[in-house]
Amino acid sequence: MQFDATFFAFVGLLLFLALVVYLKVPGMMAKSLDARAAKISNELAEAKRLREEAQHLLAEYQRKRKDAEAEAAGIVAAAEREASALAAEARQKTEEYVARRNALSEQKIRQAEADAINAVRAAAVDLAVAAAEKVIAAKTDAATGKALFADAIGQVKTRLN
């Protein structure tokens, strides 16, 4: 019997397989594969948990954003109401100021009219006195002047006593 290279390769293969079985390589490989499968399963479970947590956080942040938008809209509405109230108050104060200024101006105008009328009257009285003085001076003689003077002094004496 002659052994050729194929036979020796077959025997080497059988010895290798026997050695692999003796050293429990298939068990170690199965254990390693099981450990890797468990690790992958754990990673998938962790990824699923992280995804659920991220979705929960996303929903919470969306709710907070909506609440913040509603609060901002409320603040804007309150600011608009306050601005319109301030504008109405400013308009009312301006109208009151204009009314007071108009009343004051009208009062000053009435006072100026009264002063002008009094000035015209005073000028008319002065003019009338001057005219009367000229007329009396032209129509009276010395005797009449002395009589009027004496009469005026008598009236002053009676009023002073």
Walkthrough of the structure:
This protein has 161 residues and is mostly helical. It has one domain. It has helices at 5-22, 25-139, 142-160. It is rod-shaped and about 200 Å long. It starts with a helix and ends with a helix. It comes from Shinella pollutisoli. It holds the Pfam family ATP-synt_B.
Q: What does the secondary structure layout of this molecule look like, with pairings?
A:
Elements: H1 5-22, H2 25-139, H3 142-160
Question: What's the gyration radius in Å?
Answer: 63 Å
Oligomer: single chain
In which range does the helix fraction lie? over 70%
State the total count of DSSP E strands: 0
How would you sum up the global shape? Answer: rod-shaped
Euclidean distance between termini CA atoms: 188 Å
Mean pLDDT across the residues is 90
The arrangement of helices and strands along the chain is HHH
Residue windows where pLDDT falls under 50 for at least 5 positions: none
The fraction of residues in strands falls at under 5%
The main pleated sheet reads as: none
Annotation field: number of helices: 3
What structural category do the secondary elements indicate? mainly alpha
Keywords: ATP synthesis, Cell membrane, CF(0), Coiled coil, Hydrogen ion transport, Ion transport, Membrane, Transmembrane, Transmembrane helix, Transport
Membrane topology: Single-pass membrane protein
Organism: Shinella pollutisoli
Subcellular location: Cell inner membrane; Cell membrane
Index terms:
161 residues
Give a nutshell description of this structure.
This protein is mostly helical and 161 residues long.
